[in-house]
Each structure stands twice: as structure tokens, then as C-alpha cells.
């Protein structure tokens, strides 16, 4: 159920419904694509049609693999904390971006310090 877990963990509350709508929209277009190919009788042999669908799935899997390689995980606990401190007020996207970027920089610095400490320990 990745289609439900990723938006719940990575999207802000205001975007979760949009993520669900986008998921349903892609399923609808995928079904439409299958109907057009299958009913259009593009392939004379049904085995070729299945291989075409398999190639399409393979291409999309490669695309998703590349996208996941460059994906940067976002810890939204700081975003949610900012919204709670604002007592339910809307938080501007600029404030959110600044908060997330500062949190990401802190995480990178922490990871860098941990790597340095591990490097120093291995020298002894």
C-alpha cells in the first residue's frame, strides 16, 4: 500500500487529499490506456500486446527507480510542530520551506559530524 503510506508520511496535511486524487487520476488514465491499446486491436497477436504492456511497466519501473534515487526524504515533524505553535494559523509556504531547509542542513551537519567521529575512531 505504498500509494497510501508515502503521501501520509511525506505530504503536509493540506496536500494529502490532492495526493490521493492524483493517485486515482493516474489509475484512471492507466485504465484508459489499456482500453485504447486492447480495444484498438493494435497488435494482431495477444502475446505481443502483453509484451508491450510488460515493456511499458518496465519503462515506468526504471523511471521510478531513477526518481527514487534522487528523492530527498522530508521529516515533517518540524512542519507539524510549526503549525501547532501557530495555534492552527496558516503557515506560509516560505516559512515552511525555510524551516525544512534549516532542518535538512542540521541533519546533514549531524551526519557529517558522525562520519568524522567514526573516521577518528577507526584511526586508533
UniProtKB/TrEMBL annotation:
Keywords: Membrane, Transmembrane, Transmembrane helix
Spans traversing the lipid bilayer: 21-38, 50-71
Domain of life (superkingdom): Eukaryota
Membrane found in the keyword field: yes
Positions of the UniProt region annotated as Disordered: 102-124
Name of the protein in question: Solute carrier family 15 member 2
Amino acid at each position: 500500500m505504498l500509494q497510501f503510506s508515502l503521501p501520509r508520511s511525506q505530504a503536509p496535511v493540506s496536500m494529502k487529499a490532492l495526493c490521493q486524487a492524483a493517485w486515482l487520476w493516474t489509475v484512471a488514465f492507466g485504465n484508459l490506456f489499456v482500453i485504447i491499446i486492447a480495444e484498438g486491436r493494435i497488435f494482431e497477436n495477444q502475446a505481443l500486446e502483453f509484451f508491450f504492456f510488460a515493456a511499458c511497466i518496465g519503462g515506468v519501473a526504471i523511471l521510478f527507480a531513477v526518481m527514487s534515487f534522487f528523492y530527498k526524504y522530508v521529516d515533517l515533524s518540524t512542519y507539524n510542530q510549526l503549525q501547532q505553535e501557530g495555534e492552527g494559523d496558516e503557515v506560509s509556504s516560505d516559512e515552511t520551506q525555510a524551516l525544512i531547509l534549516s532542518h535538512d542542513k542540521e541533519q546533514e551537519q549531524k551526519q557529517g559530524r558522525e562520519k568524522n567521529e567514526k573516521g577518528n575512531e577507526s584511526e586508533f
